[in-house]
Design goal:
about 40% helix, alpha/beta, about 15% strand
């Protein structure tokens, strides 16, 4: 379910999650899984589209692929830190590979969680819950 508007924050409101991934099949699987868990879920195909959505919508968590066209996960993170957006600390990266030295160093420096592809749905659900509970 792609949402039109996240509910206003409150004690009983469900967290709002933005999935940023260029692969529509992977995106739909994640959206469907998290929607069944009771979350409000939206998606964007890359970091540029994600930043546009973030300008107009409140999100509690971002799941972002590291490797995307136009603006990748690292670029999205850096844009959020420049805007002093709290979301820069509320990202779970999705990665098929973190092989480059620069990417490995970036992930180590940020300390943000990485869900390595081919992750299982229970791994996804557990990490999302863990990050959201740490807020």
């Amino acid at each position: 379910m792609l949402m039109s508007q996240c509910p206003a924050p409150g004690p009983d409101s469900q967290p709002c999650i933005l999935v940023v991934n260029e692969d529509p099949l992977v995106t739909q699987l994640i959206v469907d899984t998290l929607t069944r868990e009771g979350y409000w879920v939206d998606s964007a195909p890359n970091g540029v589209a994600a930043l546009e959505k973030i300008r107009h919508q409140r999100y509690d968590l971002i799941l972002s692929d590291l490797h995307m066209p136009q603006l990748n996960g690292v670029g999205l993170y850096l844009a959020l830190t420049q805007q002093l957006d709290r979301l820069s600390e509320r990202i779970i990266f999705l990665a098929g590979s973190t092989g480059s030295f620069e990417l490995h160093r970036f992930l180590k420096e940020t300390g943000l969680p990485v869900l390595r592809k081919h992750f299982t749905l229970p791994e996804l659900q557990q990490l999302v819950r863990q990050v959201l509970e740490s807020r």
